[in-house]
Structure formats: C-alpha cells, structure tokens
Amino acid sequence: MLALLTSPEYAIFSMALVVMLGIGTIEAIGLGLGHLDVDADVDGNVGSDSLLGWLGLKTGLPVLIWLTAFLGCFTLIGFAIQQIATAVAGVPLHWSIAGGAGLIIGVISNAYVSSGLARLMPEYESTVIDTDDLIMRRATVLEGVSQRGHPARAKVVDQHGQAHYVMVEPHHDSDIIAQGESALLVRRAGPTFFIQPDSDTILRPL
C-alpha cells in the first residue's frame, strides 16, 4: 500500500492528503489558524463575486476549512480516477492527466461540499465580520509601545466576542500608548489601525 501511495502516479494525491492532515492537526490542537483575519482586497465586480461564489469561497467558511475540504475532494477523486483507470486499462493514468482531471472535478465538488459545511456550521456565517467593523472599538496594546511610525500589537474584541490581533499606531503624532493601555480604533490604513488613547478621546477631535 505504501509503495502504491508513493508511486509517481499517486504521489500528487498523497501529498495533498498529507497537507490536508497537517492542516487538520493544527486546527485540532487549537492553534486557531482557521480564524486568522484574511484581508484580501478583491475588486467588487460581478465577475469576481461570481467566481468566488462558484468556488464556494463566499459561504462564510474560514479559508483553511475551505482549503481542507478542497484537498479532501482532490485526494478522494484522484485516488478514484487512478483505481478506475487501473481496473479498466490495467495501469493508472500519468500523474499529470489524473491530477488535471482531479483538480477540475475537485473544484466543482468542493463548491457543493463548502456550501454543505456552511449550512452545518451556521455560526461561521453569523460571526464573520469585515475588518473595518473593528473601527470605533477599543483595543488593548499587548506588546511594545505604540507610537507614530512604530506600530504595536494590540487585541480588540468584536461584537461576537471574538478576539482579533492588529497592529496599531497613534492617530495623533504626539501620542504614545504603552503596553497594557487601551485606546479607541478610529481609522485604518491597509493592515494598520490608528488609535486614540482613552484618556483624551473626548477632549480632542478625530
């Protein structure tokens, strides 16, 4: 069996299986990579939305769960293709032919699998937020000192009680926010949020 899985005709599917199991293990031991904030700025045209929806990426599932489902589909379909080819022709297909067919059928199959998983796990759909939804929420600086040009890592909790870790700089050039202090997120530029200390949020304009 091991010789079969490591043969050139099956190797691409075996590698996909190993990656899938690795992602599953990371999730199982609680590292929480499936909840990383993925801030991908995609042009909001109809073509992009349709493609993402067709791939199953607009279901609200975390990206790593979607990827795990895709790898599972690709692996199972690839093994099935090679087994059928062996039964019919006596030998498996070349890995590139089987891999191409497995990729196409796997993408199509995963669109349905992702939709099914999203229905089974509605909490993912209800707690997905846009990054800009964190603005006007309070964050606590966890590491370092936040000053202009030198962002620090901070923790902010969204309306669903989920923690997000972001990089923050003061909104005003003269402000310095030390570790352990809280501040209000007032705007965002790319991956960096700008904050105003709680001590003078009322006193100074944004």
UniProtKB/TrEMBL annotation:
Residues 12-106 form the Inner membrane protein YqiJ N-terminal domain. Signal peptide: none annotated. Keywords: Membrane, Transmembrane, Transmembrane helix. Residues 134-194 form the Inner membrane protein YqiJ OB-fold domain. It comes from the Bacteria. The chain crosses the membrane at residues 12-33, 63-81, 93-113. InterPro entries: YqiJ_N, YqiJ_OB. The keyword Signal does not apply. This is DUF1449 family protein. It comes from Sphingobium indicum BiD32. The lineage of its organism: Bacteria, Pseudomonadati, Pseudomonadota, Alphaproteobacteria, Sphingomonadales.
